Amino acid sequence: MTGFRGELTRLHESRFTGVLRIEGVPAGVIHLREGLIAAIVTPGAPGPESLLLKSERITEREWSAAFAAGAPEERVGAHLTKTAGVGTAELEVVTVSALYDAAFAIGLNRPDRWQAETETVPLPLPVRPGVHPEDLLRETRRRLSVVSQRWGPPEQLMTHRVRASGRAAPSVVPNARFQDILLHANGRHTPRDIAFLLGRGTFAVTTDIVAMAARGLLDGRPASSPSGAAGVAIRQPARREGEDRPATPPAPPASLPRRRPGAGRPEAGPPGA
Amino acid sequence: MLIDGTTGLEYGFGGDRSALPSAAESCDDAHRISDTLEAVSGRTGLENITVTTTLSHYVTQVIPRKRGDSLLLVVALARESTNLALAARQIDEHARKLLA
User: Which residues span the domain enclosing A59?
Assistant: First the structure.
């Protein structure tokens, strides 16, 4: 991702306003304003609209009304606050978390082809004033590294069809997030699919899936932890500037299904959206 | 410091940032303690964590959300000038108002 990082840095330094279109699976569009990132759109992670609707924070009618009233002036958030009772802080949490989540999804793609265009389109829920590219890249590297260390290559986990092990029924699992995931762990959905179904972030669902597999609630076995504390995060050693990924990512566990070339890629759009 | 209780993403901070551990480390610590207690009691429901050193109190307050993953409010307090019981109450009140 070094070339991509250089491109984002260059766009930041030139205070670029426009879009950066990224090819690949998943593809994505990064919206920049004055060199800061205001939003990222990708089919690999739920956007703010999907998070708000699927989690039932707002209704379709409330979204449609707010969008119609505020989209051209990028004031959808203000209308949602006024008419749907979504607090300003809650909206900020949703939009910022969605932006970082989209970056994680695109980071799985190891982008190597992109194009910057000066077009600007109104964004329904932009992050203001925007996220600094360095902050975004640093957090994305951390997330990819966390998944690598706890499970194995993140790309493999993201195409993994999540299946309950049958060890515990959802109703007896004390963690409500785990319960929700178990209800969709039928062997047909990837972590990204479940994120869309639940209205949660792809990375958040992914980390829960890794923790659940470590407890034996899901099929598949995460990479063994040096500390022996399954499901608990591993501290990251300091990494040199410019280093994108761990030098030696752990090998996937033997029990993890192998990805076949051309198979099991995420679909182009959110299920049921 | 306000962080995401699942992903460890830092949403914002006020005051002396150097007095606090990283957002990811704070989130990992909360997970570790919650997991340990759940293994013992069979229940979740962590509300806060208070760690005291010779100089400081470190309070991590869980902020549940009606919809969405919980947040963590992480606060460092100078021990010699803090009434911990009063501070814990004020932090709890602040946390409740944050997303109201």
Answer: 2-132
CATH number where B38 lies = 3.30.450.30
Structure-token pair, residue B46: 């962590």
Bridge partner list, A163 = A186
- Distance, in Å, from the CA atom of B65 to the CA atom of B70, rounded to the nearest integer, reads 6
Give the minimum alpha-carbon distance from A200 to chain B in angstroms, rounded to a whole number: 7
- ipTM topping 0.85: yes
> For A39-87, how does the pLDDT look when each residue is reduced to its tens digit (9 = 90+)?
999 999 999 999 999 989 999 999 999 999 999 999 999 999 999 989 9
Instruction: Say how many domains are in chain B.
Output: 1
- Asked if residue A6 is part of any domain, the answer here is yes
> In a 10 Å sphere around its CB, with 0-12 CB exposed, 13-18 middle and 19+ buried, how is residue A50 labelled?
middle
Nearest Cα neighbor of B30 from B11, B43, B45, B18 is B45
Taking CA atoms, A134 is separated from A22, A36, A253, B69, in Å, by: 18, 10, 32, 25
Please work out, in degrees rounded to the nearest 5, the angle formed at the alpha carbon of residue A102 by the alpha carbons of A95 and A87. 10
Between CA A35 and CA A98 the distance in angstroms is: 19
Total residues belonging to chain A:
273
Instruction: Search chain B and give the residue with CA nearest A52.
Output: B67
Number of domain units in chain A:
1
| Residue in A97, A132, A134 to test binding to B, most B beta-carbons within 10 Å | A97
Q: Report how far residue A215's alpha carbon sits from residue A207's, in angstroms, rounded to the nearest whole number.
A: 13
